[in-house]
Every structure is written in C-alpha cells, then in structure tokens.
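User: My instructor asked us to take a sequence, write out its structure as tokens, and then describe one feature of it. I'm not sure where to start. Here is the sequence I was given:
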Amino acid sequence: MNSQALASAQVKANILIDALPYMQRHYGKIIVVKYGGNAMISEELKEAVIHDLILMQLVGMKPVVVHGGGPEINDLLAKLQIKSRFIDGLRVTDEATIGVVKMALMGKVNPDIVVHINRHGGKAIGFSGIDAELLQCRPLPDQPELGLVGEIQRVNAKLLLTNLDQGFIPVVAPIGCDSEGNFYNINADYAASKIAEALRAKRLMLLTDVPGIYRDAAHKEEIIPEIKINEVPRLIEEGVVAGGMIPKIKCCVEALMAGVDGTNIINGCQPHSILLELFTKEGMGTMIVR
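Assistant: Let's start with the prediction itself. The structure tokens for your sequence are:
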C-alpha cells in the first residue's frame, strides 16, 4: 500500500473509531424511522436511506421503518380522476380514496422498500397496520370531516418485537382498521410516533424535506439544534414552528412524554442524514428532548 492509499485508509479508520461510542450507545436499541417525502422519490436518496438502515442493523441496532407515500397516492388518484383535498395537512379520505391509498401503500410503496433492503443485503419484512391488528384504529373523534382518517388506539407491539428479535427490519405501511373491518388512512408521522411509544424506542427520527426547524422560518436561517418540550408552546405561538411542522413536533412531544428517549426532525434530502445524526457529535437537524 502506497503512502497516499495508506493515508486514505487511516482517515476511514479514524472515522470508524470516532463513531464507536455512538455505536455502543445505540447497540441493541430500537430506532423508529419515518421515511417519506423526496427521499422516497430520488433514487440516489432512496439508496442512501436503505444503506443507512442496513448499516444500523449490522452494528447491532434494531431499525423499524414507517413509510409515507403521498406522491404515489397523488399520482394514482390523478390517473383515476379522483380529486385530492386536504385539511390541516391531512388528506380527506372517502371510500374511493381509501381504496387508492391501500393500493399505493400496500401494493407498491411497501414492497418496493422491502425489496430494496433485501436486495442490498438486509433482512426486511413488510407489514400494513391491518396485519395481526398491528394498528387498531377509530375515526378521528374531533375531525369527522376528514372521513376515513384514523386515530390509533392500540399497537400490536409483540408482532414487531418478535420480528426484530429474529433479525428483521419491519417496514410498516400506515393503514389501520377497526374491530368492524373498516380501513383507515393514518398520517405516517403520527403512526411512527405511536409505534415508537409502543416499542419504547430509543429514538424516533422523522425524515422531512427541510433541514430541521429554522429559528427564522421566513428567511430559512439558522437551524435550531435542540428544543426542550417546555419550549414548544412558545415556539408555536411565536410562529417559529408553523404549518406542517406543528404536527411533526407534536408527534415528537407525545413520543417523549410516553417514554421514547429522543426524537429528531432531520433532512431526508441529505444523503446519509440518519448516520450523520446517529454517529457524529454534530448531528443533523433538530432534536426534541425532555
């Protein structure tokens, strides 16, 4: 090995040594990752997320993936000439729409993620919330105008824990059902939060299309690296946390209050953002903590 190659190899070795304390900290811990947005559309970003998940598993972590699929749902609705309508960021879901949501998430997005993970050497297994009553739901009690949008009442944690213990990466499509067999569309951030709560996960990570929560959202200046729960109401009142970021940060707060150790809102458009958050001192995005 020549001196240049040796120097390059030494840099790689030093990176691994720097990451070692973080690997030890997360070893054997459950990490729930909500995967969606542009990270699902770009092939480059998709490959980066898949590699992150596999590496997490190989170094002893137990990743669980909860995915969205908004673009696929929108495309299929458009082809079928069914109009989309949203209230407070949630898709109004009637009988026709829930059928399309099921086709997009359970028939395309979920198996695509599972195949990608398996093709790259991981061990993934796909679920929807209807499998073994993984996500038992009821309609949102205070927003009947949303139709078949579900509130999770119970998570079958045993199903996921059994598969984690057998070395699988569970990949969950956020479709639930009630005791009468009605299907419900579930917001993926919310589903990931409830699953993290049920599993007592070490970490909940929400991949988004922005770098985190800006201190000045209007000018997109300065990412806030850490927010404490008791700061959240003030930040919402001041408009620092606004729009679609409000339900995301509320999901993080609920998970923390239920026992999850830490939560992150990070940029899924940055390749390997999961690894950068987990394995570096600087981290990525915004962490919400108790």
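For the description part of your assignment, you could build on this observation: The first strand starts at residue 30 and ends at 35. Try explaining in your own words what that tells you about the chain.
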